[in-house]
Amino acid sequence: MGKKYKRLFEDIVSETNFDIAYKKTAKDKRRSHSYLEFKEYAALNLKLLREEIAYKAYIMGDYRQFKIFDPKERLISALPFRDRIVQHAINNVIEPIFEKTLLPYTFACRPNKGTHAGVVYIQSCLRKPQATHTLKTDFSKYFPSINRSRLYQEIEAKIKCRDTLDLIKTIVPDTGTGLHIGSLSSQLWANVYGGIADKFIHHELKPFAWARYMDDIVVVDNDSVKLRDMKDRLEQFSKEEMRMDFSKWSVQSLSRGVNFLGYRMWPGYKLIRKDSVKRAKKKIAMFKKMNDQGGLDRFSAAWKGHVSWADSHNLLKTLEIDYV
């Protein structure tokens, strides 16, 4: 089971930790009203917030919710500024603990990982002789479907500090289903929950290669029949152990490429997915219609970074974005 951690609460409520949490929360929020309001009396506000937690008087604020449609509809939840400080303070202490429990083949929301690291890893695997077919699948409604009782089995396997567990439960209850998309703590716990599937894939299915990015999974091996059997076993395990269903899945030859993290990959090259290009065209048209040059410049910079990882030299010209 590994090391269990019993004395964490004092580290969480320490003045140094809250100062760090405050700086992390304030990053990219310096023009927001909530930041400016908190900043006016930052030292006092941080002291009072720490005391609320230390004396078990902390009550989390209400989520502000809004929808995004990129690429599909999602309900995003945002906490007040002071509550995001609390989440950073908790994560500063416990995230390294759970980071050690994650296998190196999961790439979402982790230090030195991310989208492009996942793409580079999988494409390198596709170049090996053992790679002839891929299984691609993802979980249906991943965040809303997470079983919190099962999640807490993973949390309590590592954390034995009762005060810390009680604080975590003020943010994520230990009963019911679902995590809020957009919450800092939800990113960590969704990764920990996905780690249940990771261990099954790695230690039980034992494919040649695999990777996960939150709810998105790709498995690589040399036999389509073997991969279909892996799919059946993983689907059954996910239903029984995680209360999760697959959204969709496919097993196909490597000659058809593999869709993963916004790219369609083969051993020797990769392209931007067509649906990503369509969304980019819509955004560019929207910025131009609104005469929003600042928005267009920011989007163009981000898109250039995304495209630079693919073999798409003519794509930016098609989109009327200059390479610089």
Automatic annotation (TrEMBL):
GO terms for molecular function: RNA-directed DNA polymerase activity. The keyword Flavoprotein does not apply. InterPro entries: DNA/RNA_pol_sf (IPR043502), GrpII_Intron_Splice-Mob/Def (IPR051083), RT_dom (IPR000477). Coiled coil: none annotated. It comes from the Bacteria. Residues 72-264 form the Reverse transcriptase domain. Pfam families: RVT_1. SUPFAM superfamilies: DNA/RNA polymerases. Keywords: Nucleotidyltransferase, RNA-directed DNA polymerase, Transferase. The keyword Nucleotidyltransferase applies. Belongs to the bacterial reverse transcriptase family. This is Reverse transcriptase/maturase family protein. The lineage of its organism: Bacteria, Pseudomonadati, Pseudomonadota, Gammaproteobacteria, Chromatiales.
